[in-house]
Amino acid sequence: MNGRVLALWAGVLLSGCAALPPAKVYPLPRPDALGARALPPLPPPATAAQAAAEEPPARASLATTPRAYRQDGARHLYQRHRAQVYQGKLPPLLHAVGVLRARIGRGGELLGLQWMRAPRHAPEVVAAIERMMREAAPFPAPWQMGGVVYTDTWLWDASGRFQLDTLTEGQR
Q: Is the backbone of residue 5 left (phi > 0), alpha (psi -120 to 50) or beta?
């Protein structure tokens, strides 16, 4: 009896699989189609002798890797745009999610922006994030690296407030 039931269920499962339509494959857009521009190259990092001879700027980041710099960059953005930071856990559905790269020069100057994943369905969010990045400059100077590419994910609520993935409180 168990063998017959098992065979019956196996037949039902297999017949259901055959009825599914083939999955659609959506190609990723080319970067030039999204208006993405290559970021300018970073200047070479300072040698140990040069770094020892110079004083770090007052608002310097002591991070030695881009990953470590994410904390400093995110805290800086939260401080500069305190009123727009979403407090608490984000709702389960977000209005937009975007991944942005920012090239930061040795002195903390913003050298360029490049979208890795732009929320194209919400152009107002793209414009707001780019404006916020420009207004937040200068960033903490990545003094020990001579410049950095700071990448973070912006989690945007329908209220117009945001959290960064680096410092997010999670979702409900």
A: alpha
Residue 67: both structure tokens together: 């990953």
Confidence of residue 143 (pLDDT cuts 50, 70, 90): confident
Within-domain flag for 4: no
Dist CA 53 CA 104 (whole Å) = 22
Residues 6 or more apart in contact with residue 139 via CB below 8 angstroms? 72, 73, 76, 102, 104, 108, 109, 110, 150
- Is pLDDT of 124 > 80? yes
CATH of the domain at 160: 3.30.1150
Q: Are 154 and 101 in contact (CB under 8 A)?
A: no
Q: pLDDT tens, 8-42? A: 666 655 555 555 455 444 454 555 554 555 555 65
Q: Which domain holds residue 63?
A: 58-167
Position 31 in a domain: no
- Token pair 């945001």 is at which residue? 162
